[in-house]
Every structure is written in structure tokens, then in C-alpha cells.
Amino acid sequence: MRSESTFNIQSNNSTPLIRSLEFLWQEGATALEEADKEVLEILELYRRIYEEYLAVPVLKGTKSEGEKFASAVYTTCVEAFVPNTGRGVTRAAAHCLGQNYAEMFEITYENEKGETAMVWQNCWSYSTRAIGVMVMVHGDAKGLVLPPKVASIQAIVIPRPSKDADAQAIFDACSKAVEELS
User: What is the pTM of this model?
Assistant: First the structure.
């Protein structure tokens, strides 16, 4: 597994944390005797991250032949709906690469029968764009409410007395608000 900073040359319409020129990318890859089970396990992990931690509902699915990763046998993904744009966004993907690379680069293993066989490969990816989706789902022009598993502190009380105000009364009111919220 590796993490890398990726430069996106396709981006001509920049949106912070969603469609930006640079983002942090986490990618994993495996070579196995059988690949389908792991692809679905990784997809389920991505669903759990989005729904259980980021509080963003997603749908798991398989991309069409035209949308799949170029060298994959098939591509699975989680898709999120962003209410303020009315659009869906693909947020994490797991690809079954089949034996394409194994055949090309002669990547083999010895199976239980002692025979040489080609490995099956997978790769999957997740990026900082997940933060962008969370912000788009839970934020608007009035602010952002972060899910509890992302931010344990949900409110910050900041006293801002003006010059002519009773500063102590404002501080006392803020302290009372903090007590009631705690």
C-alpha cells in the first residue's frame, strides 16, 4: 500500500478537495490466487468509512464497461449523492485487474497442487476527496456540521464583547452555555 501526492492534469475546473490540481491519494494492490472476494471486502470497508465515520450515505455498485478502470476486468465503487448540486460522485473504487498484468509480466505462484499458475490482481484507491464530499454533504453557506466520529467537539463558544458591553456578563453567559452543552 502506498500514499502519494497526485497532480491532476485533467483539472480545468477546480473545486477544493473535489476537483483540484493536487490531492493525496492512498492506493493498495495485491496479487492473489482469487481476487473477487477481496475486491468486495475493500468496497465494504470504503462503504463503512463513508457511512459510519463521515456520515455520508453511499451506494455500492459496479461501473459499466465504459466507466471501468482501463485495464480492469471490472471496477466497483461507492457513489455519494450531493444534495446542493443534485449530482452523484464516485468516491472510492476497487478494481479487479484479473490476470492481465500477471500474463504481461509473468507473475506466477505455485498452487496447492504444485503447479505454476498466474496470480489474480486487485487495486483500490481512496483520496482526500472524501473530505470534500463530507463537506459538500454536511455543509452549506451557513456553516459545516461535522459527524461525531470525525470531530468529537461539535461546538466552540467564543466570547466577543464589544467595547461598550459588560464583558464579565458575556463571559459568564458563555461559561453557562458551555456547561449546558457539556
Answer: 0.73
